[in-house]
Design a protein that fits this description.
131 residues, 5 helices, 6 strands, two-stranded parallel ribbon, four-stranded parallel beta sheet
Amino acid sequence: VVGKEIRIDGSLNQTVADDFIQKLHDNPHLETVSLNSPGGSVFPALDIARAISVSQLYTSVPISDECHSACSFIFLSGRERIADGLLGVHQVSGVNDPSLTQTAIGEIYEELVRFNTPTYLISRMLRTPPE
């Protein structure tokens, strides 16, 4: 946390999500979430995204940074989104249970619609192979 900005750097997992939510709770003056992540686990990323949406924070990917995969859910949850760096979206991967995959896709779709994500971006995400 620096001033009114909090940064997420690195892979996303439940520990990162829990830490982020705690810092958000401890710093109610925060306005912006800066992102630099290759992605990670879907459900912790959605937990972070929901917290950002509820708090009405801005999200950004600075010019020299990247936000891919599950990180994109976090980026798209921002009240205002600025991507000067690279933003990458793709299909859900790494879930070996077909039923859990469908559950994840349903939850992702529902949240992206709630975050007012443009439909063309959701479509691109669902059509783009993970690699």
